[in-house]
Specification:
The chain is of the alpha/beta class. It folds into 4 domains: 17-115, OB fold (Dihydrolipoamide Acetyltransferase, E2P), CATH 2.40.50; 119-272, Response regulator (Rossmann fold, 3-Layer(aba) Sandwich); 276-305; 408-452, no CATH class. Helices cover 48% and strands 19% of the residues. The protein contains 12 helices and 14 strands. The strands form 3 sheets. It has a 5-stranded mixed barrel. It has a 5-stranded parallel sheet with strand order 7-6-8-9-10, with helices on both faces. The protein has a 4-stranded antiparallel sheet with strand order 12-11-13-14, with no helix packed on it. Strand 6, helix 4 (159-171) and strand 7 (176-181) form a beta-alpha-beta unit. It starts with 5 loop residues before the first helix and ends in a 6-residue tail after the last strand.
């Protein structure tokens, strides 16, 4: 029987525990050792360049992606600027950014290799469909002269549908627009667009419009799918596309009967009268050409006559022309000098006028008066404060010498007499001033009392 010491086993397991930093460090060392020199092919996406100047991007293919970084000092060796969708080959090494535990490709050099896998697929499908005749003009359906009903296939929540409807109703309020809502990107969007094109035929509209707002090639890719292209080609009703911006082209645009640069342009197209517009354009173009021809002939005759007339005056006026030019130059210089002197004189007189102005003197005396007034106030405050301090000092001395202070310590003032007939009471300071049975008044700190002398002591 095999016996295992549980204490030793627990101790061995504890020794195997490592921190996150230790694991990331060991992984980085392992990657730095085994992936020091790698070459990776992929498509550039999600380029980001923060304030540090380093360039961060994603290198991806159809199944996976790899975080990559190109440091600032390596960017000067690039043959081209990095752009979204470029197919490149990157030379570098795989390492781990330990604080986040994220491994990434540290790029040293970049070889530019094509314009992106999606762009290659776009061109391949475009070439294939063109060779099959799906783009041929002979298959394009013309718009009817009068369009009263249109089916709009788009996302009901996008800005494109609001712009389209606003333009249509602003130009033709009687136009009936029915919307078939679909997803314009992502999973199942291709199937929904194809199904909507087939469903639109059941409503018998005059025109079908495919539109959506702008975006990247990935966002517009639903309109680059072969199934959508063939659904457009099979349509028996004219299809107008207004997908993305003016510079965006999709396979759907090449297959459609009419391609407009934007949803707004598509709305303007179906609310106009193509036949009448063409006739009016030709009519006004012919009128413009005739008018321009008449004017050019007339101006040509007048110019020839004027040339002949002026040629006879060339020699006669050449000398005077030079003289006039010379005098004009002198006049210009003299006038410029005169204006400069007068401006300088004006500035001097203006400065003198300011100094002699009564307003200037009044302001100066006003400032002086304000200054003296403030000094008077400050000095008055000082005198009042000084007198206040002296008054407080004298009051303190007087309070110290006051008899009331003595009375507060338990002493009293003895006086006799009634104080009538304008006579003040006599202060008793000796027993010789009183006799027995004589009434006296004793003033205390609080109040006074009348007493009678019972017995004198010397």
């Amino acid at each position: 029987m095999l016996r295992v010491n549980a204490g030793n086993m627990k101790e061995g397991l504890l020794q195997q525990v490592k921190s996150v930093s230790q694991i990331n460090s060991e992984i980085r060392q392992l990657l730095d050792k085994d992936f020091r020199f790698v070459r990776v092919r992929g498509e550039i996406s999600t380029i980001r360049q923060p304030f540090s100047g380093h360039t961060y991007f994603i290198l991806k293919d159809s199944q996976s992606q790899l975080a990559s970084v190109l440091f600032k000092n390596q960017r000067r060796w690039l043959a081209n600027e990095l752009e979204e969708g470029q197919q490149v080959i990157c030379d570098g090494r795989i390492s781990v950014y330990e604080p986040r535990g994220q491994y990434q490709l540290i790029v040293d050099t970049i070889d530019f290799d094509g314009t992106g896998q999606l762009r290659i697929l776009f061109e391949q499908l475009k070439h294939k469909l063109r060779s099959e005749g799906l783009f041929d003009q002979e298959h394009k359906l013309k718009l009817p002269e009068a369009i009263d009903k249109a089916i709009l296939i788009t996302s009901p929540t996008g800005a494109a549908v609001h712009d389209f409807i606003s333009i249509c109703h602003g130009r033709r309020s009687d136009l009936l627009i029915q919307i078939l809502p679909v997803r314009v990107q992502g999973k199942d969007s291709v199937e929904e667009i194809c199904r909507a094109i087939e469903t639109a035929h059941t409503f018998s509209p005059d025109v079908i419009v495919l539109c959506r707002g702008g975006g990247s090639i990935e966002d517009l890719w639903s309109y680059n799918e072969e199934t959508v292209a063939r659904a457009i080609f099979r349509a028996k009703i004219p299809i107008v596309t207004g997908i993305g911006h003016e510079t965006d082209f999709t396979i759907a645009d090449f297959c459609a009967d009419h391609r407009c640069a934007t949803p707004t342009a598509a709305a303007e197209l179906i609310t106009s009268d193509p036949a009448g517009y063409k006739e009016r354009l030709e009519y006004f173009s012919a009128r413009l050409l005739r008018s321009m021809g008449y004017l050019l002939d007339n101006y040509t005759i007048r110019l020839n006559r004027a040339t002949e007339t002026l040629s006879t005056f060339d020699q006669a006026f050449s000398h005077h022309t030079f003289t006039v030019d010379h005098l004009f130059s002198r006049l210009h210089a003299s006038m410029a000098l005169s204006v400069e002197l007068k401006a300088k004189r004006f500035s001097e007189m203006f400065s003198l006028l300011l100094r002699l102005s009564p307003e200037y003197s009044i302001n100066r005396h006003h400032d002086r008066l304000a200054y003296l007034g403030q000094r008077l106030i400050d000095r008055t405050d000082q005198v009042i404060q000084s007198r206040q301090n002296r008054l407080e000092q004298n009051a303190a001395v007087l309070d110290t010498l006051s008899p009331l202070k003595t009375l507060a310590r338990g002493y009293g003032i003895v006086s006799k007499g009634d104080g009538t007939a304008g006579k003040s009471k006599e202060i008793v300071t000796s027993t010789s001033q009183v006799i027995e049975e004589e009434e006296v008044e004793i003033r205390l700190h609080q109040g006074s009392m009348d007493c009678r002398v019972v017995r004198k002591k010397t």
